[in-house]
Amino acid sequence: MLTSAERGPARVPDRVLRDLPKVCLHDHLDGALRPATVVELAAAAGHRLPVEEPEALGRWIRASADSGSLVRYLETFQHTVAVMQSPEALVRCAREYVEDLVADGVVHAEVRWAPEQHTAGGLSMAEAVEAVRLGLSEGVLAAEDAGHIVSVTQILCAMRHAERSLEVARLVVDNRDRGVVAFDLAGPEDGFPPVRHRAALELLADELMPVTLHAGEAAGIGSIRDALATGRALRLGHGVRIAEDIEIEEEDGVAVVTLGRTAEWVRDRGIALEVCPTSNLQTGAVAAFGTAPERHPVDMLYRTGFTVTISPDNRLMSGTSVTGELASLVTHFGYGLEDLEQLQRNAAAAAFLPLEDRSALEGIITEGFEGMHG
């Protein structure tokens, strides 16, 4: 495997990255709020924040996420979720989410969130889903009026440690023609396997609804196997610990790669990994490989043929974006336009869209990157 130094200096200027057409597959709505929006919504809802000035709140959230303390990391979501309990708040957050995608050069995104966490203000889960749908639609229409191409769909999450997954699965099915494209299990991965949600997963399989499960982040290979076998996952949320099922040895100066059975299954069948590099470092998902960005196994996975896609996970908590994550790959692994284009093609091909829409998305990517090459 070539190191970034062996591949030479980065070839993509920072000014180019934001204009590249990008696809985002793993992005949490409650982790993508603007600090100023959190402050305003908290004041309206009577929710007390640890810091009440937007820039200072943003710094506090990022410091908490970087602290190495799971308690402090999760506390940040308590504040964002708390201000997303009314239709008006959900509409606003969804609309601003689309605006931020456009500013980031994203042409297609699948935003995920857990409706069961947004009923404290009296909303039903169905009403919450409709509010987010409305906000996303407003954002997309405004973007189109301004001359920007963007599409956004929803992935509904059920919480692994809760008991409402069957309700969420039914909500996914009921809204399949209203912009909801898939189901996810989020929350604590270790100790809460997909088998606890068998009824929901069987319903989704019977209804031929796509599933992408968080797996290979807080737990290892066994969790990934379970997501594939029990969950019938078509993509893996994060999935980076699949790298623990790979051995690389040097023989006469040549890298020899040996894949375990699970890694072989994932790679050979093109099961997309929704990799979120900055978040993975914050949560310790890749601690076995090191704590520095250049030690993240994303490059090894990409170079050994896995279907790697790149997303921010939680824009607010990680202080990042799709552009920011790609910039890190350029800096730490020497990625050039060809690499970045392949990552976007991977994401377009893995999107939960009809074949015709995926083909059109790939065309947008091709055209956008050709313009940069030229």
UniProtKB/TrEMBL annotation:
Signal peptide: none annotated. Residues 21-362 form the Adenosine deaminase domain. Gene3D superfamilies: Metal-dependent hydrolases. InterPro entries: A_deaminase_dom (IPR001365), Ado/ade_deaminase (IPR006330), Metal_Hydrolase (IPR032466). Belongs to the metallo-dependent hydrolases superfamily. Adenosine and AMP deaminases family. PANTHER family: ADENOSINE DEAMINASE (PTHR11409). This is adenosine deaminase. It comes from Kocuria turfanensis. The lineage of its organism: Bacteria, Bacillati, Actinomycetota, Actinomycetes, Micrococcales. The gene is add2.
